[in-house]
Amino acid sequence: MNIVIIGNSAAAVGCIEGIRKNNQEVNITVISNEPHHTYSRPLISYLLYGKTDEQRMKYRPDSFYDDNRVTAMLGKRVVRIDKDQKKVELDDGQTVPYDKLLVATGSKPFVPPMKGLENVQKKFTFMTLNDAKALEAALFPEASVLVVGAGLIGLKCVEGIRDKVSSVTVVDMADRILPSILDAEGSALVQKSIEQKGVRFILSNSVKEFQGNTALLTNDEMLHFDIVVVAVGVRPNVELVKEIGGNVNRGIVTDECCHTSIPDIYAAGDCSESYDITVNQHRILALLPNAYMQGESAGYDMVGAAKPYDKAIPMNAIGFFGYHVITAGSYDGEAYVSVDGDSYKKLVVKDGLLKGYILIGDVRRAGIYTKLIREQIPLDTIDFELIKEKPQLMAFAKTERAKQLAGAK
């Protein structure tokens, strides 16, 4: 059997390892438009920051493809899936046949139309290793950098470049930073910590027009810059499946084993949707651990095993200049909030279950809260009052604690 994987990041690795845990015989081919060995995308900011290097960024050892008997076709782009002949067509005219196919094409930067941007010489996005290398080559100590976007990608870029340039200014039309994962109070704490590194934020604002190396904002402020980074968001790469009639919403629609609506074609990672158990709906959960688990589930299913991916939750573990943030789940419900200096905790409860949390600063034992959400453990079966203050295993009810300690499901 020939299994083909389009993509080479976390979902692809999960699929390969899921297959090889259950089957040593099938042929596996990975096709990726990036020329690099599989690497961890979240680490590209640390590459610029000087906290890692390309070797340590690798998501798996150099021997990964050989160890798993994978044919790696790197630096090649799939331009079409032929679902009837069961083959993929590459940009160089090659075709590769498949019996089972995983689409793990990830996402691409969204660059909104901004007047004059096409005339800016030094403009960059910040999603891939090549993006980071190109940006790094353009940096110089006297540079003023404008980052458009105060979300996860934009702020990780800020962290990576701050010590390499003279100034960094961040502009975002939202009224706070990280609006997709933080509430107002948590956002203010993180913003303050980043501002202490000399970063300027201009919020509730956007670029109306670029005039050479000057940005005219909607409040008519003029900002000079040498380099601009556009980090306003991403769009899932769904075109290959959409073009052949697959079911696509914002992302590719899949079931709990990552099947698409087309026989023998699976999807995983940032291009696909998962069923978020905290809000009971399908949506994109663009997170490395989720991508890996989706890919692994697909890999199991491809070779006749089973490992459904049915406990998906949104989760982010991130840090900026050593200040840590972990969030998970959703925030619709009754909130418990605790603030202690630079540490912030918010737990959200609904229908007797923990639905979400925000931890900033002190993020120890976040795994306890994550397990409560993912396993949907009723709070009346544990000492939740103790867990709110001091999360620890001993706060679980005796029977539940025995299961935890025994590793029982």
Descriptive tags:
409 residues; alpha/beta; five-stranded parallel β-sheet; 24% helix; globular
Short description:
By secondary structure, the chain is an alpha/beta fold. The protein has helices at 10-20, 44-49, 54-57, 64-67, 129-138, 152-161, 184-195, 239-242, 288-302, 366-374, 384-389, 398-406; strands at residues 2-6, 27-32, 70-74, 78-82, 87-90, 95-97, 100-103, 107-109, 123-124, 144-148, 167-172, 199-203, 207-211, 214-217, 222-224, 227-230, 234-236, 265-267, 274-276, 281-283, 315-320, 323-329, 334-340, 343-350, 353-360. It has a five-stranded parallel β-sheet with strand order 3-2-1-7-18.
- Through-space gap between termini: 33 Å
Strand content: 25-35%
The mean pLDDT is 94
Q: Tell me about the largest β-sheet.
A: 5 strands, parallel
In total, the number of strands is: 25
Poorly predicted runs are: none
Give the number of helices: 12
Level of helix content?
A: 10-25%
Question: How is the largest sheet built, in terms of strand order?
Answer: 3-2-1-7-18
Characterize the overall form. globular
Structural class: alpha/beta
Rg from Cα? 22 Å
Can you tell me about this structure?
It is a single chain. It is built from twelve helices and 25 strands. The strands form seven sheets. Strands 3-2-1-7-18 form a five-stranded parallel beta sheet. It has a five-stranded parallel beta sheet with strand order 9-16-10-11-12. Helix 1 packs parallel to helix 9. The radius of gyration is 22 Å and the shape is globular.
Structural topology:
Blueprint: E1 2-6, H1 10-20, E2 27-32, H2 44-49, H3 54-57, H4 64-67, E3 70-74, E4 78-82, E5 87-90, E6 95-97, E7 100-103, E8 107-109, E9 123-124, H5 129-138, E10 144-148, H6 152-161, E11 167-172, H7 184-195, E12 199-203, E13 207-211, E14 214-217, E15 222-224, E16 227-230, E17 234-236, H8 239-242, E18 265-267, E19 274-276, E20 281-283, H9 288-302, E21 315-320, E22 323-329, E23 334-340, E24 343-350, E25 353-360, H10 366-374, H11 384-389, H12 398-406
Parallel strand pairs: 1-2, 1-7, 2-3, 7-18, 9-16, 10-11, 10-16, 11-12
Antiparallel strand pairs: 4-5, 5-6, 8-17, 13-14, 14-15, 19-20, 21-22, 22-25, 23-24, 24-25
Helix pairs in contact: 1-9
